[in-house]
Amino acid sequence: MKTFTEIRALREHLQAERFAAAGKGEDLRVGLVPTMGYLHEGHASLLRKARGENDLVVLSVFVNPIQFGPNEDFERYPRDAEKDLALAEREGVDAVFMPSVEEMYPRPTWTKVKVAELTERLCGASRPGHFDGVTTVVSKLFHIVQPARAYFGQKDAQQVAVIAQMTEDLNFDVEIVPCPIVREADGLALSSRNVYLSPEERKAALVLSRSLLQAREKAQAGGAVTAGEIRADLTRSIGGEPLADIDYVEIADFPGLSPLADTERLDDAGRGADALIAVAVKFGTTRLIDNVILTKKGMA
């Protein structure tokens, strides 16, 4: 495994690897896993997926400042480069890209990539500019690495939808591969920010997965259950936890993210499109997101 901190060095390495593969009459399939580090088993699952589908796996570790708002946690976002490198080595990563902020943004960023519509809902409504930062850094990584595939966790379903839209609109020759949410044994979705939770807050946060599971079961039980009923159930369930401060409880088409009307049915028989049931809730100062996706084949 090789580690790179400079764009030029990584590009030269990948170019050499592609040239060597071409000399053997082979195409080099590169898989990219973009992360902000402080890796956990959820990230490891992305790396394993990439390892199984590509000839060379690149992991990027970069806490991207332009996707953080002025009152968000950029400075205190958890970082542990040594732990990240150990996990990457264990999962068979070929190259790790760990640039500095100065390397990625050597001057003020006057050019940004913006996806309209999809970014104005859900997390975008309470985090203005966040997704502009995400799409800008991901587009930079796509240009630098030129992967065949890029892997993203479904826990941030809106991010998956936004990046897929950007990739299609800008004709990036990259396959976006969404990967399932990985949870703790008690149901809490893995997140680097879970480290912020106090023991009491972490226990309280279990209301998210518990409530989403109940919503999924009700939606798939058949009958004329509506989006309004599920929203009300989720709001009541999560709101009943004293430490929970709800940002949003939303049900939307996926990947279009258009909110479903309260009267729209969610059962598979009555719907022809996938539906995202998503929540964002604060516990103390820690904002957590979670979701389930209802499809014709069940839950993702």
UniProtKB/TrEMBL annotation:
Fill in the subunit field for this protein: Homodimer.
Further comment found in the protein's record: The reaction proceeds by a bi uni uni bi ping pong mechanism.
What NCBIfam families does the database record attribute to this sequence? cyt_tran_rel (TIGR00125), panC (TIGR00018)
Q: Where does ATP bind?
A: 36-43, 153-156, 182, 190-193
The similarity annotation says: Belongs to the pantothenate synthetase family.
- Which Gene Ontology CC terms are recorded? cytosol
Top-rank taxon, per record: Bacteria
Q: Where does (R)-pantoate bind?
A: Q67, Q159
Name of the featured protein: Pantothenate synthetase
Q: Name one GO molecular function term.
A: ATP binding
Q: Which HAMAP family match?
A: PanC (MF_00158)
The active site of this protein is located at H43
Indicate whether Phosphoprotein appears among the record's keywords.
Answer: no
Residues bound to beta-alanine are Q67
Species name: Paenibacillus macerans (Bacillus macerans)
EC number(s) recorded for this UniProt protein = 6.3.2.1
Report the function annotation for this chain. Catalyzes the condensation of pantoate with beta-alanine in an ATP-dependent reaction via a pantoyl-adenylate intermediate.
